[in-house]
Amino acid sequence: MCCAFAVLACAAVMTATPAHAGRSCESRKPVPPQVIERGMQLAAQTSAALDAEHARSGARVVALARAGQDLTKYGLRYSHMGWAYKTAEGPWRVAHKLNECGTAVGHLYRQGLGEFFLDDLWRFEAVYALPTPEVQQRLLAVLQDKGLTRSLQHQPYSMVSYVWGRKYQQSNQWAVETLALAMEPATVRTRDQAQAWLQFKGYEPTTLKLGALTRMGGRVGSANIAFDDHPNDKRFSDRIETVTVDSVLAWLQRAQMAAAPVVVTAKK
After folding, report:
1. Domains of the chain: which residue ranges?
2. Phi and psi (nearest 5°) for 90?
3. What is the pLDDT confidence band of residue 214, given thresholds at 50, 70 and 90?
4. d(CA 184, CA 138)
5. How many CB atoms lie within 10 A of CB 11?
6. How many CB atoms are closer than 10 A to CB 89?
7. Is it the case that residue 120 has pLDDT exceeding 90?
8. Residue-averaged pLDDT of the chain
9. Whole-model pTM?
């Protein structure tokens, strides 16, 4: 499965459909033991870092991301994000959206950190950003309510969906639209209202420079890539505006909604 741009440990799945994130939907080879070991090591180090944040400040929610595929040619470091929250039982879990492999639909999942980082990572590195106490409190209320968590979920999926469009929704898009719902529950009840809030708060998407041949190849070769939701004037001038982890982390800090991102790297 591909996401916008994981099977071990506890995994409480919102839907039972198999999915993967942050890489191509090619037939998978058996995962080498050393890859499993490093993925679990990254999960353990991330858990320790988040527990330290909890002990220091009472943190209960963070924006958590991974590097599931190589996006360096687009100037991006991370491919997929979700909201990690500390459960009453103690472990951290991640609420995030995944694309069902080989299809144009996405579903929501709750996973433990071990599963979140066992998805054939491009780079064994995590990044998290600690929201302000108010943002955490509002997000936690949504993440603990399965109905609210699903309320802005939109199944039709394109990994390059237009940031201000409603035809498709990719993984990172669900995450920021759900943030809007959490911050303005009285007025944000639809995706267009969530996007209006994001615009009001100054969110700026990443603009990918994708030529016609790249767009055509992506659309023909992958069920989860579509460009027909992008405005013609932008699409045909090779400007694909979409939600990326890097742009979300920069915006959260710029809007003073979260602290500077913290990087966790698995030891070799």
Report:
1. 11-265
2. 125, -50
3. low
4. 9
5. 16
6. 7
7. no
8. 87
9. 0.88
Both tokens of residue 26?
């090619």
Q: Which amino acid appears at position 254 of this protein?
A: R
| CA pair distance 228, 226, nearest whole angstrom | 6
Q: Count of alpha carbons within 13 Å of 13, Cβ hemisphere only? A: 13
- In this prediction, residues 66-90 reach a mean pLDDT of 94
C-alpha closest to that of 40 among 80, 77, 83, 7 = 7
For every residue of 204-219, which 3-state class applies, written as one string? CCEEEECCHHHHHHHH
The pLDDT tens digits for 20-35 are 544 445 545 677 888 8
Burial class (CB in 10 A: 0-12, 13-18, 19+), 100: buried
Query: If you ran DSSP here, which 8-state letter would residue 151 be given?
Result: T
**Res 119: pLDDT:** 72
- Do residues 197 and 180 touch, judged by C-beta distance below 8 A? yes
Which residues touch 256 (CB under 8 Å, ≥6 apart)?
A: 132
